[in-house]
Specification:
The protein contains 20 helices and 12 strands. With 533 residues, the protein is α/β, with parallel strands linked by helices. The strands form 2 sheets. The chain has an 8-stranded mixed β-sheet with strand order 7-6-5-8-9-11-10-12, with helices on both faces. A 4-stranded antiparallel β-sheet has the order 1-2-3-4. A hairpin with a 2-residue loop joins strand 2 and strand 3. Helix 2 packs parallel to helix 4.
Length: 533
Amino acid sequence: MNTEAPPEEPRGGGFAISLYLVAFVTGAIVMSFEMLGSRYLAPSFGAGIYTWASLISTVLAALCAGYFLGGYVADRYPSPTVLGATVAVGSVYLLLLPAFSEQVLQYFAWQIDDIKLGSLAAAMAIMPFPVTFFGMYSPFAIRLLMRSRQNAGAVSGTVYGISTAGSILGTLATTFFLIPLIGTRAITFMLGILGLFGGALLFATASSRWRRFVRLGVLAALLASQAAMLAPIRAEESFDPQIRASTLARKNGRIAHVETVYNDIFVTKDASLLKLSFQWKGWYFNQSEVNLADPSDLPMLYTRVMSIAAIFPQDIRRVLILGLGAGSIPVYLHRFLPNATIDTVELDPGVIDVAKKYFGLRETKNFHLMESDGRVFLNRHSEPYDLIFVDAFTGSYIPFHLMTKEFYQLVRNHLAPHGVAAFNFLPTVDLFDSNIRTVRLAFDNLDFFNSGDRDLFMSNVIVLGRLDALSEAETLQRAEAAQARYKFHFDVSRLVTERRIPAPKALKGEVLTDDFAPADVLDARGRRYRREK
């Protein structure tokens, strides 16, 4: 007895074209959503190898289930209406996801300490449902397009080829254009609208009564696209002299949220403090703070400690800062070292835009902002610097290529005589040990300063690499002389006395090289403490 339902006769000559078009659309949606998955998970689990492994394996598992399920359902209900319903269900989920994703991800971040299991569980919680429904499309469409066994190969190849082409476009368009243009949630909403349009098109091929829904779908997609284009705050303007006063008068809370290729940026106000964070939950995401009422203030202690580097050079003429944040360090140095040329290098153009618009940064003849990877900048420029500050983060991580033996040697090679390099190191035990072992290969003279609690591993550690060998007494003399000369707002002689800590001993970490630098793995071992703080 044959239990298969008879195929629903399509109406209109564009039936095959419609199926191929929607194959392209669903392929694009799946890969775009996978790229967005990293933006959803990164604030809670980082953007390291475990997060990407969880995403990729989850999407593959969902596609696998979708292929089996799509073939099974297609044999029993070979109807464009049923196929359109599967696309519509996955699309509706995408429209709803931004409303509950943060709560779901934070639940797993706090309940599961192991970053591998946590990221996998979170990915399994938000990713498989829509991907499974979109994965059903290709085998289902092949079943509807096949008229005989003779064309089975051509039909299958065409469907999967067109779907893969859509996946390529979805990957590139999402990462290269959409994320920096409109952000994760707006893209997710647009994908849902696009999917509903595809489902409506399939309904229209089944019956003329569905064609009015196609018109509604087109209208909704156009309106959603326009709304999404207007949703983000694009930070492209230079500093307005009144912006700090006007911002100071605003209510406390979030001021802006800007998503870029590299970071998810939040600007928040707390009394007179304006804060820049790369992630919203957890203390370790806070990157920079500015006191709107006092431009000479450095609210974050680690930035004050990094200013100790200025005591060592005999004359500070050129300063290089890798990593901008809100610009608190370069602005502070520019106020007290007005004759020094300060070059600040930042990888993320979005960070530069935010720093200009919300934190009031603007370039002068001695203060330059440059968009570049820090290491690329050093490789392309040979000018020596009296001070080099390395304070570069992507999300909550220091990029691995800024923690290797080759990088530290490159920094040393760019120091002028009597020059000093200041490094902001994370407190995670394994990664900290590896960093110290590695930086010692480039610098014979290291000073260690704590930027928070006296416990070495309770806060970031500022490490100064010097070319000159100095005793503690000579260092204190240099600090007193520098304070008298530059009149820093925060007395560097007191900072040297109060923040110095002994050099760590019995280091167990690995030396990090360009060939071998498991920085993500080493840092992940310390995330439990930082999440519980």
